[in-house]
């Protein structure tokens, strides 16, 4: 066999192999590589979107935490204000109740004083009558007795 014929046969075989590869093998390989490249690009894009979503979610979480802290601070301030208000109301109620109790006690003391004075007057009147009886039994002088009774009445 001649070297040229072999070379020509090999060249024809190579050309047929190149044509067969270009026609039947190369398109599925390029399609698979294109699909793989597309999947990789989609995966990278999804990863980037995921990263952006994660950053956005972290920002939302930080905002929500700040809002929650502000709300808790507002609630605490409101609770302290309400507690102070309740304490002031209780103090005012206690003052009013104390003033009412003092007024009631003073009124009761005044009534007791009036009762004591009335009792004392009755006792003095009884003693005056008893004294008058004794005086009348010993001596009967109408003018002296009238003056004496008038002075007793004036003292009462």
TrEMBL record:
Family matches, as SUPFAM superfamilies: F1F0 ATP synthase subunit B, membrane domain
Cell compartment(s), UniProt: Cell membrane; Endomembrane system
Entries under Gene3D superfamilies matching the protein: F1F0 ATP synthase subunit B, membrane domain (1.20.5.620)
Keywords noted in UniProt: ATP synthesis, Cell membrane, CF(0), Hydrogen ion transport, Ion transport, Membrane, Transmembrane, Transmembrane helix, Transport
TM stretches of this protein: 6-26
Xref: InterPro entries: ATP_synth_B-like_membr_sf, ATP_synth_b/b'su_bac/chlpt, ATP_synth_F0_bsu_bac, ATP_synthase_B_chain
Pfam family, one: ATP-synt_B
Membrane topology per record: Single-pass membrane protein
Functional note: F(1)F(0) ATP synthase produces ATP from ADP in the presence of a proton or sodium gradient. F-type ATPases consist of two structural domains, F(1) containing the extramembraneous catalytic core and F(0) containing the membrane proton channel, linked together by a central stalk and a peripheral stalk. During catalysis, ATP synthesis in the catalytic domain of F(1) is coupled via a rotary mechanism of the central stalk subunits to proton translocation. Component of the F(0) channel, it forms part of the peripheral stalk, linking F(1) to F(0). The b'-subunit is a diverged and duplicated form of b found in plants and photosynthetic bacteria.
Subunit text: F-type ATPases have 2 components, F(1) - the catalytic core - and F(0) - the membrane proton channel. F(1) has five subunits: alpha(3), beta(3), gamma(1), delta(1), epsilon(1). F(0) has four main subunits: a(1), b(2) and c(10-14). The alpha and beta chains form an alternating ring which encloses part of the gamma chain. F(1) is attached to F(0) by a central stalk formed by the gamma and epsilon chains, while a peripheral stalk is formed by the delta and b chains. F-type ATPases have 2 components, F(1) - the catalytic core - and F(0) - the membrane proton channel. F(1) has five subunits: alpha(3), beta(3), gamma(1), delta(1), epsilon(1). F(0) has three main subunits: a(1), b(2) and c(10-14). The alpha and beta chains form an alternating ring which encloses part of the gamma chain. F(1) is attached to F(0) by a central stalk formed by the gamma and epsilon chains, while a peripheral stalk is formed by the delta and b chains.
Family: Belongs to the ATPase B chain family.
Stated name of the protein: ATP synthase subunit b
Gene: atpF
């Amino acid at each position: 066999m001649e070297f040229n014929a072999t070379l020509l046969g090999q060249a024809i075989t190579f050309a047929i192999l190149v044509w067969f590869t270009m026609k039947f093998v190369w398109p599925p390989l390029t399609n698979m590589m294109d699909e793989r490249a597309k999947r990789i690009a989609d995966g990278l894009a999804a990863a980037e979107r995921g990263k952006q979503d994660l950053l956005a979610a972290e920002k939302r979480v930080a905002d929500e935490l700040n809002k929650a802290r502000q709300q808790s601070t507002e609630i605490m301030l409101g609770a302290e204000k309400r507690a102070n208000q309740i304490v002031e109301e209780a103090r005012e109620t206690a003052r009013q109740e104390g003033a009412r109790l003092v007024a009631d006690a003073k009124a009761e003391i005044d009534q007791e004083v009036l009762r004591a004075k009335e009792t004392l007057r009755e006792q003095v009147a009884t003693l005056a009558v008893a004294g008058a009886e004794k005086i009348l039994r010993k001596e009967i002088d109408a003018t002296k007795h009238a003056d004496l009774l008038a002075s007793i009445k004036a003292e009462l």
